[in-house]
Amino acid sequence: MTDSTAPAAALRRADLSEERLKRRYAAEKRFRAYGLAAIFAALAILGILIGTIVWNGHTAFVQTHIAMPVYLDPEIIDPQGSNDATVIQRADYQGLLKTSLRERFPEVTGRRDRIKLYGILSNGAGFDVRDRVLADPSIIGTTQTIWVKSSDDIDSLVKGYIDRDLPEGDRRVKDNEIVWIDSFAADGGVDTKFNTTFFTAGDSREPEQAGIWGAVVGSFFTLLITLVLTFPVGVLSAVYLEEFAPKNRWTDLIEVNINNLAAVPSIIFGLLGLAVFLGVFGFPRSAPLVGGMVLALMTLPTIIIASRAALKAVPPSIREAALGVGASRLQVVTHHVLPLAMPGVLTGTIIGMAQALGETAPLLMIGMVAFIVDIPGGVTDPATVLPVQIFLWADAPERAFVEKTNGAIMVLLGFLILMNALAVLLRKRFERQW
Amino acid sequence: MDAVAEAEAPQRALRNSPKMTARQVDVYYGETKALKNIDLDIEENQVTSLIGPSGCGKSTFLRCLNRMNDVIDGCRVEGDITLDDVDIYRSGLDVVQLRARVGMVFQKPNPFPKSIYDNIAYGPRLHGIAEAKSDLDDIVEISLTKAGLWKEVKDRLQAPGTGLSGGQQQRLCIARAIAVNPEVILMDEPCSALDPIATARIEELIDELRQNFTIVIVTHSMQQAARVSQKTAFFHLGDLVEVSETEQLFTNPRDQRTQGYITGRFG
Amino acid sequence: MNSFILIAILLVLSSIGYSFGQRRARSLSGNQPSALHSRPQYYGLYVALWCGIPSLALMALWLILEPQVAEWMLISSLPADIQALPADRLSLLLNDVKNLASGNIVSREVDAALQSAADGYASVRQIGNAAMVVVALAIGVLGLSFARKRITPGLRARNLVERTVSIVMIVASTIAVLTTVGIVLSLLFEALRFFSKVPWYEFLFGLTWSPQTALRADQVAGSGAFGAVPLFAGTLMITFIAMCVAVPIGLFSAIYMSEYAPPKMRAIVKPMLEVLAGVPTVVYGFFAALTVAPFIRRTGESMGLDVSSESALAAGVVMGIMIIPFVSSLSDDVMNAVPRSLRDGAYALGATKSETIKQVIFPAALPGIVGSLLLAMSRAIGETMIVVMAAGLAANLTADPLEAVTTVTVQIVTLLVGDQEFDSAKTLAAFALGLVLFAITLTLNVIALNVVRRYREKYD
Fold first, then answer.
1. So what's the pLDDT on residue B13?
2. The domain spanning residue C380 has which CATH number?
3. Which of A175, A204, A258, B77 is 20–30 Å from A430 (CA)?
4. Residue B7: pLDDT above 70?
5. Three-state DSSP state, B204
6. Which residue of chain C has the CA closest to A293?
7. Which of A266-270, B129-133, C143-147, C258-262 has the weakest average pLDDT?
8. Is C163 a member of any domain?
9. Does domain B2-111+183-262 have CATH number 3.40.50.300?
10. What local confidence, expressed as pLDDT, does residue B14 receive?
11. A37 touches chain C (CB under 8 A)
């Protein structure tokens, strides 16, 4: 080492002066503060997001009811006295309610005012009466106090979404309506009760009669199709690519292709579904069958990638051990590798399903955005899904749909959290140290 | 903090005390005790080598000397370690200052993914040793020269440091440590990833660096310890079994275990 | 539901075949399994596969082809003057016939001819359905008995089964490729039809976008009503705003999480950020339209600014929020891949933590981070629901983020939702936009995935 003769004196010691260190530590502190601020910003946004949804949505789970004394007039309900359920079912219960409203407020006479007065009750209030009568036909002919649904405007007023102090012209609920509802309230006849309709009904133009059940069932059928199609195909492809495929151009292509497919915008899958499933194959529009197929193609890469990772995590020694005792490669996979990788595969599948459950855009393309009142009975019935229902309600002009939208979002988030918790649980339960 | 800086060499020379001392040092990783009651002096301008079977705690001890253990979660150090009679674990002491004075070279060469020049200039820029380009150029040249790498790389200073061979990378890392002009250089098995020829060059280099720096080297090779160091400490299962002049330790070990290790009965 | 029952029957038949095959193999070997080439289960599987695969394949084919055959038969049964109708009117008529046949509401007077056509169509469908059930079952039974006959102790059942299974696996893994091919072909095909009506250069470089008025024949192509530049500009602006929100927050939180946060904090905060990633985009859209947009509008008005209620800013900010977890988790991964030895090297020289991050880790991780940002950007470009709900419909060519702009995805949705005619330039334009969107996101993804992969290989 002949070249190491340079004078050591030329090297200077570090500048460890107080001032310079202070500067460096200030920079350190600032940097750290930026990081902390970023995290707080993200968490605050999450808090605001969830907070506004819960704040605006928790009231969707209750509905204002009004205690109406109704004379269950046999002349109207069952003139022949047949006691036949189909006759009783068809009677004009809304009319009975109107009669008792007129009796309670005899001072309301004008046609317009009358319509206003009837309007404090929901159009579907008659169903509440009907259900009571059907449950116990013996009450026909008596006067019963029955809790019936109020209209959506009254509901909003009672829940405090409409400001009574605004000038009358700026307010959806007019002064006389407030007088009427206050008169019920004075007798303890206004109360919010658990909103069963919200969980059992399909969509409706009337907010107080609209529910998410139709969308939930639609989501269920759609996800069922997705799962049935994507799980076997995904697992089989993953097993092939990870355990059997020769390393050549073709498998490289498949691999690159899967990675890219995972990042293709979801709306593109909707276009594919529209052009191929509806256009070429002529499958029915708005059906969970097609929706499920589109979502299956969309979640396929997620499941393949997750399953491959799970398969990769099984140590080669296990494969070698099984091959060593004379198992065929397929036997190695089905007897040893796949069972060991199953928790990972299932976790990936659940995450893929959660992704599919929250997806909206591709379903708009294949017509699952229609206004559908009926609860779908199968995979070819027209249906909508929860996120699309949220999208539809978000667009509706009525004030009361805002809380319904938020409520539906809470239900959707609830399902998603449940699925993710299941995935986490699965991962924790079967976590293995090789 | 300035207390450390003020502990200047003249005073030390008067007292004639070791450069670094360790007294009753215990190190824990979580619940397990990795080092037990270590007492060791490190003399100025000497090479001290730490030997022992793997897992004996020699690397752990080395990393205590510039507090590199701080970055490991759950690692706890008890006892006193001093640099120029100042406790380096006392509260208020700054690890940045400490590491500027006690540099380190690692087992695997770890050049930054930057140019050769920037690798060397990183430390001086960090500590404000040189701001001007010409000063930096000088430092880079001197450091590379001292590390015996200047001739090989002077024409491609802007090439990435990761493109060098293993031995060159390790000399680059040594040059990088030298550029800050520390007082002590810690080396953690610096040759274990290198071929014999590169190893020989590094060993030569260590011997030359002893003129200006105090060096502590961890090695798994007893021959290396015998070749480069003046003083050798033998660690076993977290204990410091024996420490003495290198020659004496290898020719006339006092402890049964040392005897066993150097004659190859275990290790 | 009929086909589901058939599928169930075929599956039951296959499992019967399984036990048949197994029993047959056992009895042929004289209850000495060692005399067989393979274990008895494989003979069972052999029969089951012969029974199930051909019949199910036939059924799938039938389900796909039958509607078309029925429609073709329907058209050829119609009077000649109706057959000569232009395509769009014919398809309306066919729709009505189909609706009438399945008992739905029809949009026109039902006359005798229509009724008879509907009856004919219904009976064709019925016969077709029945024929499918019969043929599928017959093939299933045939396959079963054929395979059962072929069983001999020397039959290499395991090899045959394994070969079949591997063919099935290859087919399964080809589906992903077929999806891509399907996407490219369907987009290309429809887009080419669009470009035959509107020249491609007008589409790509035209400055005016108003597909609504272009329905009138004299305006198509001539007026440049399909100039997509305002959409590209709007998409870019919203993406840019989103990146401005997501990059600093995402990167800094990734840095804090991977370098500073104590394990306890990480254990709490990380899942919470993941929640942010799991929120469906429709929820973000609702949040943007109902909370963020009014907030920005009010804030702007209090500062004397005129803010559109569908401002690009609102949509962009919320889209940024959506991709924060994306940016942060990807860059977290990337920075964690930087080897520990580099950190040690910097610490040993006396660098502080932030100096190590800024000067060593970040530059080392830069290619990977750029890759993840590109991926995040491609996601923002392709995101649909947030902009559908919070951005505008009018195609303004503007650089003011407070004005309403529209994006490629918004236009795809508005052009296609509720529209039935498949041939108008308007619907076809959606596919042309889809093609552009696909090409851009694909390019970004390919580049990003390559960069990230090369980066990973470097530190593996």
1. 47
2. 1.10.3720.10
3. A258
4. no
5. helix
6. C179
7. B129-133
8. no
9. yes
10. 47
11. yes
Instruction: Provide the shortest C-alpha distance from residue C345 to chain A (in Å).
Output: 17
Q: Is the pLDDT of residue C415 over 50?
A: yes
Which domains does chain A show, CATH number per domain? 64-194 (no CATH), 213-429 (1.10.3720.10)
| pLDDT tens track for B153-166 | 989 999 998 889 98
**Interface contact B100, partner C, CB < 8 A:** yes
Nearest to B145 among A3, A12, A15 (CB): A3
Q: Which of C286, C350, C409 sits opposite A394 (nearest CB)?
A: C286
Which of C109, C135, C155 is the endpoint of a domain?
C155
Q: C376 and C244, same structural domain?
A: yes
pLDDT band (50, 70, 90) for residue C232: very high
- The pLDDT, as a whole number, for residue A10 is 58
Dihedral sign, Cα of residue C142, residue C143, residue C148, residue C153: positive
- Residue C174 in any domain: the answer is no
- In terms of CA atoms, which chain B residue is nearest residue C364? B113
- Domain that includes residue C92, residue range: 2-155
- Whether A353 has a pLDDT exceeding 90, the answer reads yes
How far A61 CA sits from the closest chain B CA (Å)? 48
> Within an 8 Å CB–CB cutoff, is residue A313 touching chain C?
no
Chains that touch B (3 or more CB pairs under 8 A): A, C
Smallest CA–CA distance, residue C368 to chain A, in Å, is 16
Model confidence band, residue C440 (pLDDT cutoffs 50, 70, 90): very high
pLDDT band at C219 (very low <50, low <70, confident <90, very high): very low
Q: Are strands B184-188 and B86-87 parallel, antiparallel or unpaired?
A: unpaired
Higher pLDDT, C126 or A239: A239
CA angle B211, B214, B215 (to 5 degrees): 105
Q: Is C89 a domain residue? A: yes
* Per-position DSSP letters for C309-321, written without gaps between them: TTBHHHHHHHHHH
Going by pLDDT thresholds of 50, 70 and 90, the confidence category of residue C325 is: very high
Contacts of B72 in chain C (CB under 8 A): none
In this prediction, residue A90 has a pLDDT band, given cuts at 50, 70 and 90, of confident
Percent of chain C with pLDDT over 70: 93
Q: How far is C198 from chain A (nearest CA, A)?
A: 20
Long-range contacts of A231-235 (CB under 8 A, 24+ apart): A231/A303, A231/A349, A232/C172, A233/A296, A233/A300, A233/C172, A233/C175, A234/A299, A234/A300, A234/A303, A234/A304, A234/A307, A234/A349, A234/A352, A234/C172, A235/A303, A235/A307, A235/A338, A235/A345
Residue numbers in C near B65 (CB within 8 A): none
Q: Which of B68, B122, B129 to mutate to test the interface with C (most CBs of C within 10 A)?
A: B122
Banded pLDDT at C124 (limits 50, 70, 90): confident
- Partner-chain contact A257 C176, CB within 8 Å: yes
**Domain termination site, one of C97, C128, C155:** C155
What does pTM read for this prediction? 0.85
With contacts defined as CB-CB under 8 Å, which chain C residues touch A244?
A: 166, 169
Burial of C304 by CB count in 10 Å (0-12 exposed, 13-18 middle, 19+ buried)? exposed
Q: Tokens representing C161?
A: 């089964």
- Residue to test with chain C: of B94, B102, B126, most C Cβ within 10 A: B126
Q: What is the mean pLDDT of residues C75-90?
A: 74
Q: Which of A423, A379, A7 is nearest to A228 (CA)?
A: A379
Residues C252, C133, single domain; the answer is: no
Q: Which chains touch A (3 or more CB pairs under 8 A)?
A: B, C
How does strand B239-245 pair with strand B231-236? antiparallel
Q: Please tell me the distance from the alpha carbon of residue C41 to that of residue C15, in angstroms, as a whole number.
A: 12
- Assembly ipTM: 0.90
Query: What are the residues whose beta carbons fall under 8 Å from the beta carbon of A166, sequence distance 6 or more?
Result: none
Domain count, chain C: 2
| Cβ-defined contact of C349 to B100 (cutoff 8 Å) | yes
Instruction: Confirm whether C221 is domain-assigned.
Output: no
C434 lies in the same domain as C308: yes
Candidates C263, C341, C355; nearest CB to B110: C341
**Chains with ≥3 Cβ pairs under 8 A against C?**
A, B
